[in-house]
Amino acid sequence: MKRKERTRILVNCSNEFLTQWAQYFEQQTQFHVIEEPKNALTMLRMRESAQHSLFYLGEVLVSETRVKCRDTIGIGLIQGNELEKSYALAVIDAACNAALDGVDQLEKALTQEKQKQDAAHARHVAGILKTRVNFETMDV
């Protein structure tokens, strides 16, 4: 599984799921905290649709953490004030980058979680589409 897809799934997981996997990897080896979980502001970059030029829309509060496992660095960065979640993300990222035992099991669990998230998203979109107005049928 690619890092971008894995991160997208993990960010949308529950805190319990992330904490469980972070503790699982912490039992296997020691993780050194390089940068404690902290809040920061980052600029939100957008692309203007007409001229395709970049501009900064504003600032976003993020939680970030960096950990090290066997010469491999893991980064946890998530929008909002979620320090525990950013730490768990960093531990899981470092574990995957270091190819620790259990990464295959994590990927299987992430595949199941992705199916749950996709189903929930499909239900959400279906609920929105129920309220959609078809303007062609309004013509009399």
Automatic annotation (TrEMBL):
Keyword Phosphoprotein: no
Domain of life the protein comes from: Bacteria
Transmembrane intervals: none
Keyword check for Lyase: yes
InterPro entries listed in its UniProt record: Phosphonate_metab_PhnG
Pfam families per the UniProt record, alphabetical: PhnG (PF06754)
Keywords: Lyase
GO biological process, one term: organic phosphonate metabolic process
A molecular function (GO) term: lyase activity
NCBIfam families tied to this protein: PhnG_redo
Full protein name: Phosphonate C-P lyase system protein PhnG
